[in-house]
Description:
By secondary structure, the chain is mainly α. It contains 5 helices and 2 strands; from the N terminus they run ββααααα. It is globular.
Amino acid sequence: SQCAYDSHHISFSNGRAGSRNYTDGELDILLDIVEALLPTGELEWESVAAEYNKIISAKFPTMSRRMVRDCDSLRNKFKGLRNIRKPTGDPTCPPTVVRAKRIQKAIESRQGVIDF
């Protein structure tokens, strides 16, 4: 997947027809849920997807069918955010990326992973 970002916008393009970018609000919802659940396996990511889609349906009842995301989409979006590297010479990093990296450290801590 290709990534392009500046300090105000992050978008990923996977080239799939019909896929759409995440809004800032959707990213906040996703990160809130991942931070609360700290998913480490498939079943936990399915819980993330269920909670995400429940919140989206409640917040956007007329748009919710278009905004439903599956487990893989949400996990890949989170992984994409946490793996973004700052461009050389650019000290800014989008808040969603900083947050995703912080959440990833909490997930690793939950798993007992030690970085050497």
